[in-house]
Write a structure and sequence with these properties.
The chain is of the alpha/beta class and 261 residues long. Helices cover 32% and strands 29% of the residues. The protein is built from 9 helices and 12 strands. The longest helix is centred in the last third of the chain and has 18 residues. It comes from Paenibacillus zeirhizosphaerae. It is a peripheral membrane protein. Its main location: membrane.
Length: 261
């Protein structure tokens, strides 16, 4: 396993957000974290990305506790994109993507030809070739999200963590980002761990679904095994119909209704 959480507890002050969580993230797979608001999804992702500390338990990367990794060395292996991004309003798309090379450079060291070739490759993968001289602030929501993903790709990470990458996007740009995530996983072999709200999007792309409820692991496994009517009732307090395709075993959820008290 590339990344592993063992009996992890995470809290802020006296409030425990994640309790006794044990998970394994297989390399080269897409892992989606689902659950209602406030269940600890983003908190877990931040801990996996070394953005916050656990209060107990351990998170292992390549069989070594992540706190033993320097921040720079860890950033060469794992890229983390938060839900809300901030950048200088004057920075261009290419300049933003070049930031992804910083973990590979010494302080004040300039980017060389190899770095620029890696940046060019990230631009091509995310279909931003015609937008490199635009400022990031001038982009549409979907274009901006692709630019940030390209910056993460320029780090050349083994693992990419994404916190709600389709939030605030219209359906066209949501599907554009979902297709890009699938492409990066299949063609580049990147392990992807992401937080999603849309159950159908998670079912479309995930090898493993992780469901959290009140800071604890409710279930994890394949979409077909985890996305059930019982899970939807227990965790999301809704009834819904589930369709499993006989051709490719893809799963879709529709006709949602709130549970009656």
């Amino acid at each position: 396993m590339t990344l592993e959480a063992k009996n992890v507890h995470i809290g802020y002050h006296d409030n425990e957000v994640i309790s006794a969580l044990t998970l394994q993230f297989e390399a080269g797979k897409i892992h989606s974290i689902l659950g209602p608001n406030g269940c600890g999804k983003s908190t877990l992702l931040k801990a996996l990305g070394k953005q916050i500390q656990t209060t107990d338990g351990e998170i292992l990367f390549k069989n070594s506790e992540i706190n033993k990794w320097s921040r720079k060395a860890f950033a060469r292996e794992l890229a983390f994109l938060m839900q809300v991004h901030e950048s200088n309003p004057e920075v261009t798309v290419r300049q933003l993507i070049e930031y992804g090379r910083f973990p590979h450079k010494r302080k004040f060291e300039r980017l060389n030809q190899e770095d620029q070739a890696i940046v060019d490759h990230a631009i091509t993968l995310t279909h931003l070739v015609d937008l490199t001289e635009r400022t990031v602030d001038s982009l549409s929501g979907g274009e901006r999200q692709r630019a940030w993903i390209a910056m993460a790709l320029a780090q050349q990470p083994a693992i990419l963590l994404l916190d709600e990458p389709t939030s605030y996007l219209d359906i066209h740009h949501q599907l554009e980002i979902i297709e890009l995530i699938k492409q990066l996983n299949i063609e580049q072999g990147i392990t992807i761990i992401l937080v999603l709200h849309d159950i159908n999007q998670a079912a479309m792309i995930s090898d493993q679904i992780i469901v959290l409820q009140s800071g604890r692991l409710y279930d994890c496994g394949t979409p077909q095994n985890v996305i059930t009517q019982k899970m939807l009732r227990d965790v999301f307090k809704v009834d819904a119909e589930i369709n499993v395709s006989s051709e490719n075993e893809s799963i879709s959820v529709y006709n949602f209704h709130l549970l009656k008290e």
